[in-house]
Amino acid sequence: MIDQEFHKIKRLPPYVFAEVNAMKAAARAGGDDIIDFGMGNPDQPTPRHIVDKLIEAVQNPRTHRYSNSRGIPGLRRALAGYYDRRFGVTLDPESEVVVTLGSKEGLANLAQAITSPGDIILVPNPSYPIHMFGFIIAGAAVRSIPIGQGGDFLELLERSVRHSVPRPTALVLNYPSNPTAETVDLEFYRRVVGFCRENGIYIMSDLAYSEIYFDGNPPPSILQVPDARDIAVEFTSLSKSYNMPGWRIGFAAGNARLCAALARVKSYLDYGAFTPIQVAATAALNGPQDCVADIRTLYRERRDTLIDGLAAAGWDVPSPEATMFAWAPIPNPFADLGSLEFSKLLLKHAKVAVSPGIGFGEYGDGHVRLGLVENRQRIRQATKNIKAFFANPEVISEAESISAAAQ
To answer: What is the pTM of this model?
Structure first.
């Protein structure tokens, strides 16, 4: 038997969420009712007109053949139409749009396309894991830009570039952010685009939560900045906006050279999503949009229920302006535990599952992420459980023992 580790696997740490997931599975197997805020997995059905279009398309045997790895022309035109309506951005569906198997696949395959071993990629920390590990798998060296710690992002970006040898190849952005729910305005994008154009740095923008916003203006696209398409490509997805996570449909749009590089890699790896799924996705983008507003309202109501309930329980959590997540600082009595141990304690005693912030990078370890993926009744029950958790002297004692053992 060959006893040899594979180089790329060695660069991937154990999946932080696996330990909490194993505890969650064990608790459920033991009969516990776990209220699960851990995974950002929409719990509502896909809108009926989209499902109906899938059923109609799948009944045509011609759609069962190999599809197009770049995406069928009608779907690429539909995405261009969305950008025109929503952002006032005109895209060429032939050269500036690629359909992907979700934005996660698109990011990972673009990383493979543009990255050579030793290239430096700038990634916010904390951030969604694929933003970092897509490039690590491709052989890059990732330099973290700490966010949520105070300080001006552009100053942190300039410092990172100044101290990077060789000069960075690309910068990843994600606003509205997963996990922090932070939003930015168009002026932010103007500053970053200007800096990156001057320094020859590509930008990968993840706009997966473009339609899940609540209190402010709709989140902008980086492609609204003049000349952004000289250096930027943006990823979007139907997963959250239309409750279609398992359908695996996303897009890359923007810089034609980056889109061509992605399309070339994809041509070797896949034949695109199943054609009926692409036809249904076209119906989603071109059809009635009331469902998107309804989904947005659902998450707003759940957000308000969660934030109000946590406040009543004694946990002060900022109310997110966008995304389907709340980014919650670990309360003071538990702050020394770190996010993984706090998540395990919350699961054990409150029967509430959350995502430990350390899973999104070391700068996330002071927080946990809560997904708005349970109905309002179960959210209320969760906050009652959490209130009892905070008031339980046995929990405080156990937390002190864990902290002492770690020192």
So the answer is: 0.93
